[in-house]
Amino acid sequence: MTAGGYHYAAMWPESQLFGPTLVAGSDPAELAFTFDDGPNDPYTLQLLEVLAHYNAHATFFLIGDYVRQKPDIARAVRRAGHLIGSHTITHPHLMYASTSRIHREIEGATSMIEDVLGEPVHFFRPPFGSRRPEVLRVAREAGLTPVMWNVAGFDWNARSARAIEMRVERGIVHNQNRGCGTNVLLHDGSHLEMGCDRRRTVSATATLLGTLPRTGMHLVTVDAWLTPHTRTPNYAGSTYLDV
User: What is the pTM of this model?
Assistant: First the structure.
């Protein structure tokens, strides 16, 4: 495999070259909001209030170290009915990690989250989307389904909530045009620090949920796409750079 091909397989969110990952379903009316890098005080709790206001459920990929620091917030996410997945202990680039660290990061984070929640975790998102065959193998041996995305809000460096909203809106339209559901990547926290300002993400999420009824779309959590009739095909192209 050439260097360019390897990078595509390792980093492109919809690439299936290194092994199957869950991206989205085949129904263009389905939309999943996924949030990475929490729990993050106070923005995860603010986001929970927004989601509760719209009776909406999302998928949260939690960092093990943050769950250890803020177990009450992790439990609050689950009590509110949201789906929880693992996002490793420390958010490393697993594509470059040793095999022993891959095991430690994936299995350790899963154990931390399960100890706090008192229930099993079944989903995993690699930090930065960075993966290689060994990463996917370890995840699957741990009973985890790897989950990627097909729309990124780029909320980690957005100048405004509206910028996030526009990227997500364009990505939804793009996915509808190619006949697939939408899996939106947003962040309620940051791997760099606890307390990272995510007010733009909270605001954008509220606006997007408020406009949902008139779009004809309905929200799902990523486990809805595990059923045979909604397993994602290997769509050509990606909205990762388009939105």
Answer: 0.91
